[in-house]
Amino acid sequence: MGKIEHAIPDVLKPTYKIPALPPKGEIETPAVLRELSRAHRHLAELKGRAAAIPNQAILIDTLALQEAKASSEIENIVTTQDELFQASLFLDGPGSPAAKEVENYRDALKRGFDSLQQNQGLLTCNAIIDMFHVLKRTEEGFRATPGTALKNDRTGTLVYVPPQDHEQIRAYMTALERFINDDQASDLDPLVKMAIIHHQFESIHPFSDGNGRIGRIINVLYLTRTGLLEIPILYLSRYITSHKSDYYRLLQAVRDDGSWEAWLLYMLGAVSTTSRETLAIVEGMRVLMADYKRRLRDHPTIRYSQDLLNNLFRHPYTRIEFLQQDLGVTRQTASKYLDQLAAAGFVEKHQQGRNNYYINTPLIELFLRVSEPGEEVSEPVKTSKIETV
């Protein structure tokens, strides 16, 4: 008997040809150029204000977790602030499955940022695969089995079929890697290029799951590699969560009829809006830290240090072991500090089982004020597996 070939059925044959980059035709239209000016202005203000926070790890740790929460909500992975920060304490296991997924996203973002720094600003396919490993806790790479298609969750309608062949996926991702890292390949504005990169990645859809989250991590890492941000803190996913139906509709419109302008205006609007929202968090943290610093210094019994202040803002939910590590003190001393802080109203003391933990309540309230849920949207598009006929 001859070798049996498992052909891809017609319903799973891609109808959109992944384009060479950069796309042909006029991309930076007058409307796009106007929106670019606004987006750059807000992003530059965020970059400048973020530099006023003395310990940048505070922003990376807290805002990465907020970004992770919002990005995961796009995929219907929903958790509360309390679940999220309790999971980071490792009190009784990893917490809810949703909180663990969000933590994985944060860890993948940080892994990508570390790779960017270690590889002289290069964002490679290997780094992207490594982020996927962290996100999904798997050793899989790019998709190797046909059968992936995007369907509308509510109606079951087939929306888009990405490339199915493994070698073709690898070739598309290699070309995308070149486009990401070659700053001389085109004279496109970096924000326009970011939007094109995101569309190309989502259209290639290289992984079996998690493509949306990895794609959104690539967005903020690209902004850091181009110098538009010093650290990956842009709270971009919250905008997409609040405008999810438009996000999927405009992604597909580029594939259907080349509607690049509408897609670029959407992404630039996301940068402008979320730059302002992230700035509100950063500025709120700066004001809170200044207030805590003044009150701690004036307190008659609490011994102030910058490391103590940093701990209370890097870990909105903190515990004795965190203080021990950050301050280099004994467990007894760390416990005494935290009880003094609770008695003075700087933190709230809570207990879970045999463990105590301490909440910086004003900081959590700041996150809740800026991160209220967005509008309800319908007909989300998710990745589904269609059995090969």
Explain what this protein looks like in three dimensions.
- The protein is elongated and about 70 Å long.
- With about 400 residues, it is mainly α.
- It has helices at about 30-50, 55-75, 80-90, 95-120, 125-135, 165-180, 190-205, 210-225, 235-240, 245-255, 260-300, 305-315, 320-325, 330-345, 360-370; strands spanning about 150, 160, 315-320, 350, 355-360, 380-385.
- The strands form two sheets. Strands 2-1-6 form a three-stranded antiparallel sheet. Strands 3-5-4 form a three-stranded antiparallel sheet.
- It has two domains: about 30-280, Fido-like domain (Fic-like fold, Orthogonal Bundle); about 300-370, Winged helix-like DNA-binding domain superfamily/Winged helix DNA-binding domain (Arc Repressor Mutant, subunit A, Orthogonal Bundle).
- About 40% of the residues are buried.
- β1 (about 150) and β2 (about 160) form a beta hairpin.
Keywords:
389 residues; mainly alpha; Fic-like fold; Arc Repressor Mutant, subunit A; 3-stranded antiparallel sheet; 59% helix
Short note summarizing the structure:
With 389 residues, this protein is mostly helical. 59% of the residues lie in helices and 6% in strands.
